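Residues determine shape. Take a concrete instance:
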Amino acid sequence: MSDDTTKPDKPVSAKLTQGSITGHLVGQTLPAIIGVAAIMSIGLVDAYFIGQLGSKQLAAISFIFPITVALSSLGVGVMVGINSVVARALGEGNSEQAARRANFGIAFAVFAGIAMGLMLFALQDPLFRLMNAPDDLLPLIRTYMQPFALGFPLILAIMGFNGVLRGQGEARKTSLVSITYAAVNWVLDPILITGAFGFEGLGILGAAYATIIGWGFGVVTAALLMRKAAIPLDLSLLRGSNLVDPAKAILRVAGPAAFSNSINPIGLSILTALIALEGEAAVAGFGAAGRLQSFATVPLLALSGSIGAIVGQNWGAREYGRSRQAAVYAFGFCIVWGLGIAVAMVSGGEFLAYLFTDDADVVDEFALYLSIAAWGYAGFGLLIVANGILNAVDKASYALIQSAVRVFLVMLPVAWLLVGDWGSEAIYTAELAANLFGAVTGAILIYWVLVRRAPDHSRA
């Protein structure tokens, strides 16, 4: 039995295959910017209130940050896989297949979250020791990571729901989910971390609880929004059907995409281990500036997410010219935004650092990091948008290879070779070199796939 035997109540249209490409890019990306900004703000708000606890707590969260990003990136890969197969099925006019694969994807995401959370809970101590986390920080790290690991299936459930919604072109709904759980975190952080309204606060443990409770609200919101979507949550579609087909389709994209997305934070984890050799202030400055950088690149991250549905639906409908047009416009935006925000971040480095800490050594490292790494923002944008396009057209393996080469043959070797003489500056230079490499290779791959290898019967 194929995965197409049960039909949804009515056909689902591939609405991104018609109308203005520019309009679709704006319409899909603007809500995504709000959603991604909300997500990234969680890290900033956490860092702000944890920074009030002291430099040790800020250093502890700096060790935690790349690990949580790596795990979330694996979840993003699952979301990208669901988004890709749903968008292409809709573009091909196969709404029955889209519905079945969507619901399978949600169930798959939840089970993946359970497995990843349990693995993290079991391996957290050896993992952070590998990162050179000092013994006096391990209790703080453990305090945060234990509840985080147990709550991790909730964020994977959100990724599953959002993958289905994105594949349909429902960017507004995915943004509402993100805003919901971010807003809950904003409210709870000052109460649970530092204390308010007579409550003493739980310190770094409060940050973990705020995040998990926010995820719970996000899951409920996503489930309610799915009830009103063109492809609703209906796990009965999986009953009595062959699940091998949707599993293969999703994993063919989700597997490489998950590893591709997680390779960069894995590299950052190794960089954190190297910078730990330079002292606690270097780790704290690197971690805090990295969180600010994540917020500054929100429009690029949003665009990398929205481009998948646009290119995927048009590729499935054989509107190859429209897919190329979307790629060109997206690349142009990455260059303009990346260079513009780099100027702002380099100019205001020290001022921004004092928002997180008044420790002079941490401020110096924060500003130094921005003065070097910020010039790679445009390249980072080109890289992640290229990855989004490759995943959308079922070329996730290309994105995986590019990401692996970028981190393991560029970023880490540059850091390793220079750190002895340059200290922490070598780490920041390595990140810049990796982003410039990603920009060039990303542009080459998109040209090869969308222009050189696209079928001849393209319609502009």
Observations:
- Residues 1-10 have pLDDT under 50 and may be disordered.
- DSSP finds 15 helices and no strands in the chain.
- Residues 47 and 270 are 21 Å apart (CA to CA).
- The radius of gyration is 21 Å.
